[in-house]
Amino acid sequence: MTSAAQKTNNDVVSGTNSDDEQQYLTFIMAGEEYGVDILAVQEIRGWEATTVVPNSPEYIKGVINLRGTIVPIMDLRSRFNLERVEYSPVTVVIILKVETERGERVMGIVVDAVSDVHSISDSDTRNSPELIEDLNTEFIRSLVSVDDNMIILLDVQRLLTIDKKILNIADELAADKE
Amino acid sequence: MSIDLSQFHQVFFEESFEGLDIMESSLLALDLSEVDAETINTIFRAAHSIKGGAGTFGFMQVSGFTHVVETLLDEIRGGDRVIEQDHVDLFLLCVDCLRGLMTDLQAGSEPDMAQADELKVKFEAILAGEAIATEGSNEDSVETSATTLENITNSNDDDIKGWKVEFIPCEDVLCTGNEPYRMFRELQDLAEAEGGSVEVIPHLERLPEFSKMHPEMCYLSWTILVRAGIELSDIEEIFEWVVDDCDIRYQRLADDNLSAVESHLAPEAIEDVNEEVIAEETVAEETVAEESISNADISGEQKIDQVTEKLAQVVAAKAKTESPKAVVKATNKTAENTSIRVSIDKIDGLINMVGELVITQSMLGQLGQEFDMDRVQRLQEGLGQLEQNTRELQESVMKIRMLPISFAFSRFPRLVRDLSKQLDKEVDLVMIGENTELDKTVMEKIGDPLVHLVRNSLDHGLENAEERTANGKSSNGTITLNAFHHGGNIVIEVKDDGAGLNKERIRKKAIEKGLVGEDEILSDAQIHDLIFQAGFSTAEVVSDVSGRGVGMDVVRRNIAELNGSIEVTSKAGEGSTFSIRLPLTLAILDGQLVKVGEEVYIFPLVSIVESIQLEKSMLNNITGNQFVMQLRNDYIPILCLQDIFNTGAEKKDLEGAMLVVVEGDNEKVGIVVDELLGQQQVVIKSLEQNYQKVDSISGATILGDGTVALIVDVSGLNNKPLEKNSDDQTQAA
Description:
The structure holds 2 protein chains of 2 kinds.
Chain A: H1 2-7, E1 21-29, E2 32-37, E3 41-46, E4 60-66, E5 69-75, H2 76-79, E6 92-100, E7 103-111, E8 113-121, E9 140-146, E10 149-154, H3 156-160, H4 164-177
Parallel strand pairs in A: 2-10, 5-7
Antiparallel strand pairs in A: 1-2, 1-8, 3-6, 4-5, 6-7, 9-10
Chain B: H1 9-29, H2 37-56, H3 60-77, H4 85-106, H5 114-133, H6 139-145, E1 162-168, H7 180-193, E2 197-203, E3 221-227, H8 232-238, E4 247-253, H9 255-335, H10 344-369, H11 376-400, E5 402-404, H12 406-409, H13 412-423, E6 427-432, E7 437-439, H14 440-461, H15 465-470, E8 477-486, E9 489-496, H16 503-512, H17 524-529, H18 552-561, E10 565-571, E11 575-583, E12 588-596, E13 599-604, E14 608-613, E15 619-622, E16 626-631, E17 634-640, H19 641-645, E18 658-664, E19 667-673, E20 675-683, E21 697-702, E22 708-712, H20 714-732
Parallel strand pairs in B: 6-8, 13-22, 17-19
Antiparallel strand pairs in B: 1-3, 1-4, 2-3, 5-7, 8-9, 9-11, 10-11, 12-13, 12-20, 14-18, 15-16, 16-17, 18-19, 21-22
Helix pairs in contact in B: 1-2, 1-4, 2-3, 3-4, 3-5, 4-5, 5-6, 10-11, 13-14, 14-18
């Protein structure tokens, strides 16, 4: 990861308002800063207890009632195989919304803390190095540097379409470990 | 100012589909011996609005086609023409065709005009036929006939380019010693003498099934194009011997229209041939494949080339036949997003209800502002009123989704009519309880199983007329569709007065397929139940109507998906009755709340048989971890949700635990719960929308405190231990 950061350590001119700029909401997880397209963010909530879903992968913490809709909550640390931490009052849930073939899909992700909103131009982003062949890299759209800090931009669409196929892979991996 | 018309497309399609339904039902209701002018008007109006709408939105294919249909209808309406059975059949085909076009357009794909063009030609032929008789008294028909082939007769009298002869011999033409081939040869000689040519196009429509074919009968008819300047009398001479018992029509060919005739005729002819070719080739496919293996090394490359060529043809032919299916599949997807029409009464009722709710709310609001303990009584009253309002509101909102079952029944008169014709059976269809209301989603999903049941009853259930009269029944079979409410369910019955299920044959077949043991004693109900097994068909002849044994199991599965059940009762010689039992709605369910560990789960109340406290004496341990208990005469397995759901919650001692006995798919299971909570109506929410389907869970709901509780799918639970066991076995092996 650090090598990737050095590669893409170009200075980004922030604050300009050209047309291809997009705003990203960034959050912190295990010391790294991640970003998601701000248009996909529906709201930010505090952590609340969930209803456990049977036979769900470990990273699905369960479902909550979000004003009448059933919304699954995903622990992003667990999804990215990061060390687990106890949930605290500052633990936040970012509710993301994407359009898929089957209609709108809403899901919450648990992260350590929300950080900032950045305007990032598409031309400043760099592809993540393809060295790391992992399920997790599938969710990474690109890398970008803002004020010398690397931000990992996530592909929300992919993150939320945890279809059966991916789940099966995850299950198989889990079974192999056993 | 330009308006985006596409926003109205959906409305147009819906109205058009409704119009088509009206056309269809009116056509079916039409009594030819006594034609009701109003019915004709209804059909005409429906066609007219479809044409108008299609024109407005630029669907020229539809409006052009509908125009021809409308022209004929107009003539019938105006009394210029008497409607005949042929016309009705043709109109029905048009309804189907228009429906197809419209579905294509709705899906955004280019409509397939082949059928429409074919029908158009037929219509124009009818219209033109009339135009000749009335000497062009009708402006409209003359105008449309300008493009038809029949009008050829009207043009170019002096310039003879040839003749089109339609030769439809009677079936026993060969017995009278007349050989059509000889006549064609004579025609050819005649034409060639004049430097012309003869083209013979055979028509195979009258060909019966091979088993019914009589070797000495002639089932073919021909269209002969004689391209030579010969006199009509010369041709007539050739057919002189057969003219009395055969149908022969002569038409003059004009030069310009020669190609037109060909192209009009070609699709029909090609289609006929194609059918044969495809059938042959699919049969040939296997032999070709075998050939290629056995002959490859003997006859070398040349042979292989031939074979691959043949195979390519087969593949191409197959692709041709399969592509329409793909289109249909694609359209199904988009069609699901439909709207619903609600009667104004229901809306008014809803508005009243909301009004009351607002009053109650303001009353409670006022109470809350200056509250003291003296007013507790009034608060409770207010809350009671609120509860009642809410329930009424909920019920009337649910009613909006309810439609009379006639929406699902409406397709059956047509289906029965077509099928009984095809099967050559006389069938009356009786429909009872068409106004019984049913949830729209349920209605959409029950359509196909119902069609299947009706087809089955028609094909297998009812005997043909001779058999019926021989058994002392009326020659007309009767199929009854009956819908009624029963408790919280709707029951739909498909009943026939046919031969009934043949128990012996079912039993024999079941033994053959290894579904039951040879000396197993089965009750009638058990035998009847066998027909719902996969791959089970007792029909001796597989027809395209039914008999492939795919079906009844699918019907049962589809109905089970709707939380319903299906049973069959049958009496030999008197007929069979299929009863489908469905919940009125999929959106609300009476549930029993239970607590397991930290989680609250909901069991559908209908699935609960009883709840008991376990005692040690009831418990039996089989195969280590699996417990069963004796409940009266049954041994039922005991399951822990913690195990099935892998929630990791701690398990309590079985002894003294609370057990809920549930039944799904006719299997009972005991489920250990920590605590029985209350019973309440719950609104079913989808888990799939934002997550995915979860095994053994049918949905989620939101409890009074705002938390989510999952609804257990009882029939899913039943299959669970079995799957687990088989997994274990495979691992062990």
